[in-house]
Structure formats: structure tokens, C-alpha cells
Amino acid sequence: MNRLFVYFGGLFYPFCRAPLLLTTVRRTASDRQLVRPKPESFLRSIPRRTFWFAGQVFKFGCILYFVNAYVVDFFVCIGPSMEPTIQSHDIVITEHFTQRFRVLKRGDLVVARSPVSPTIFICKRIVGKAGDLVHDEHRNVVKVPRGYVWLEGDNAQDSIDSRRYGPVPEALIRSKLCLRLWPFARFGRIPDYRRPAQPGEDLVDTDAVDLE
């Protein structure tokens, strides 16, 4: 008899429990209605939420600016002047440490502000530094003054560079190319390369990297 009682108790237990569950649900819903914020209190919280969101955006902007200005940059290279080393629409990463600590050397690929259009960034290679003798586009010998560098594109036939507008102040150099992100097929470090001196030039240098 006890077993039968237990059996029926287990069978009807959920049904006996249903009114209690319904009551609990109703009570919970009533409680939620009681604690639901009033429209005016919600409106008062809008300025606080707005200020919080603006603060988060401001902090993110500060971090992004710091990284962009002092650590690394991302650039999309447009144009044929650096082919075949850099193809048009390649995405590259540049770093600021080399430029800030003044350890740039001949052969480095750099991003600099154009001396003729300061709002435009150019991607060129350092061919000459202070004291070097180089040729301009008219084959005249030019001596690079102190505090300047001589920038050229690897694609000499299709590059507007120092051969046309002369030496570029080192202060215009923003960063040094270090890594290619895109396309993935050519992902990896971008090596430096020293252009051989042409007849009449003098590129005395011991710190550049020569490629086979």
C-alpha cells in the first residue's frame, strides 16, 4: 500500500505542483512590475550612460592614437614606384622606434611625408644620408646635407622621388616598413636593400644590408 501511495504520489506530483508554480510565476511577475523603473528615472539615467559611453570612446581613442603615433602604423601602398619590392595595394606594418632613436640606415624602406605635398605619405627607400654624393634626374651630383636623406623608389623608371625634389629632411620620416600583411601569399618581413652606387656617386656606408 505504501508502494502504491508512493507510485501515485510520484505520478500526480507534477500536477499537484502546478498551482504552486503558477502562483510563484504570478508573484514573481508582480514583484517585477513593482520594481520596474519609472520612465522619469530611466530618462534621468540617459545622461549618465551617455557620459560613460563617451568616456569609453575617449579612452579607446587615446590608446589608438598612442599606438599609431609611437608604436606601429598600418599603410596601404598605392602606385608602382616601389615595384617589385612593394606592389600596389600591399598592406604593410611600419614601426616608429627606428626613426625615433635615429638609427635609420641606407637601404631602409620608410614612410615619410611628401616634401611637396605634406598631406600625402610616400613610401621610398633611403639611398643616401648626410655627406653622400648622389645623382639627381639630370645626372647632376648632389651632396646630401646634414639632417637630410636621399629617398628613391625601387622602380626608377616610374618614381617621383629625391631625384626630382632633392634631399628630404629626416624630420619628415614617419616610420620604417617592417612587415607585409597583405596579400597573405607574400606575408612576412620586408628586407632592406642597398642600391649600388652609380658612376660618380659616393655612398660610403658600413651599416646597410646587402641582398644576394
UniProtKB/TrEMBL annotation:
Database matches in InterPro entries: LexA/Signal_pep-like_sf (IPR036286), Mito_IMP1_subunit (IPR052064), Pept_S26A_signal_pept_1 (IPR000223), Peptidase_S26 (IPR019533)
Residues annotated as transmembrane: 6-29, 50-72
Alphabetized Gene3D superfamilies for the sequence: Umud Fragment, subunit A (2.10.109.10)
One Gene Ontology CC term in the entry: mitochondrial inner membrane peptidase complex
Residues at the active site: 81, 124
Single GO MF descriptor: serine-type endopeptidase activity
Localization, UniProt: Mitochondrion inner membrane
PANTHER family: MITOCHONDRIAL INNER MEMBRANE PROTEASE SUBUNIT 1 (PTHR12383:SF16), PROTEASE FAMILY S26 MITOCHONDRIAL INNER MEMBRANE PROTEASE-RELATED (PTHR12383)
Family to which this protein belongs: Belongs to the peptidase S26 family. IMP1 subfamily.
UniProt-recorded name of the protein: Mitochondrial inner membrane protease subunit
